[in-house]
Amino acid sequence: MVLTVRDHELCALLVKRGEAPFKGYWALPGGFVRPDEGLAEAASRELAEETGLRAQTAPGQVLAGQNPFGAHLEQLATYGHPQRDPRMRVVSVAYLVLAPDLPSPRAGGDASSARWAPVSELFGEDRNDGELLAFDHGQILADGVERARSKIEYSSLATAFCPPEFTVGELRRVYEAVWGVVLDPRNFHRKVTGTPGFLLPSGGTTTRQGGRPAQLFKAGGATVLNPPMLRPEA
Amino acid sequence: MVLTVRDHELCALLVKRGEAPFKGYWALPGGFVRPDEGLAEAASRELAEETGLRAQTAPGQVLAGQNPFGAHLEQLATYGHPQRDPRMRVVSVAYLVLAPDLPSPRAGGDASSARWAPVSELFGEDRNDGELLAFDHGQILADGVERARSKIEYSSLATAFCPPEFTVGELRRVYEAVWGVVLDPRNFHRKVTGTPGFLLPSGGTTTRQGGRPAQLFKAGGATVLNPPMLRPEA
DNA sequence: GGAATAGTGTCTCTAAGACATTATTTG
DNA sequence: CAAATAATGTCTTAGAGACACTATTCC
């Protein structure tokens, strides 16, 4: 499953199923592992086929990786309930991709059958239509969103949602979108710039948000944040 | 894979392979999923068959669960490198079990082919013999140990290593064994007794450690610790 | 008594949260 | 000019770490 932040909202990539079962339902993109490829390799290949995005694990890393584009890919969980597919026993190894805002989804050339769905529309308070995803993909989506929400607390993974260069304000809006909260800009700025290895000044400035020009940063090498960025309580 | 704490050390359950490939090597216990059972169900069944321990996920919980015995079972990760088994393509869904100290391992009736191995002997500084596990089980073990080490930071999962009733000192020794550090008893006591929902006084006291009698506790309902129990840095 | 463990209290310092204030752009 | 965003600074308070000290058992 692919998550991104668009228009200040956390969004998941969905594709419309063209065949039974669950024909016409929205589902998470996926496919089958080839006999001679690894699991992460297969996830990366399917992702490229369906969205054109390149994300792959670093060699030797079993569970997670970061690619040159900044997109992040990691194994989420494996789902194997005997009746999760009405046709036959299917075991799915779900992978989670965190990507910067992408131009537009294109599902194997068929643009009408793919979309970015705000996760707040799929579950939570804003859910107005009770739309259900195919198979157990609602559960997989919920697990992936929770993984993303908790992982940006104690890692620098939120930068995977940002373009190669970004401002502190843009990074803050990522946190706000993923957590669905409002953060104090001043305390946030002090926190992220004060955490060694989180942000690396790239020298430039930008004014694309209006207002005073903001300093541009790249993701620093740090992967673990200590102390963590605490998610505000309910 | 099953982890426990014995003699102030974090230990993993290993079984000796009686057949090729890797005949005579130590390996993590495991087995095959039956056509009509779930993944966690299969892990729970194999565990009971090989050790007599009962651990199962609570119904509806996909990723983790807690059973009446206090043993905890959760999905760890899935390993599917094409050449991880020299015979054929095998995809393994690893489950992690955290259990209190068990009487003695018995592997399907054959006691000589199962043992509790301190993880410090399998990797890390203390590793004196360079013993290797079968297949990629060394990697799986490392991933499981890291999961346990990080998870007791922000959850009450350390109680899964304890008997149903335990003292603050026993819980502290669990943290010390899993992290391989020494903690201040006074600060630890203040921290765990001050975290609401972590510990529930059971009324009794015990003197099994010598010294002044200690109050006995049960695991409280809390699963998430906020603020977390911080692991001391290197 | 001495050794061991349990439990409470006190001090310091880091860092989070709640603000004020100044700086620099666009409209 | 006003409005928006960026960046820095100040105050308060919660909580972690480093201790001293008392309590209660077994030997």
Automatic annotation (TrEMBL), chains A, B:
CDD domains: NUDIX_NadM_like. SUPFAM superfamilies: Nudix, Winged helix' DNA-binding domain. Pfam families: NUDIX (PF00293), WHD_NrtR (PF21906). PROSITE patterns: NUDIX, NUDIX_BOX. It comes from the Bacteria. Residues 1-141 form the Nudix hydrolase domain. One of its GO terms (molecular function) is hydrolase activity. The keyword Hydrolase applies. Keywords: Hydrolase. Belongs to the Nudix hydrolase family. This is NUDIX hydrolase. It comes from Kitasatospora cheerisanensis KCTC 2395.
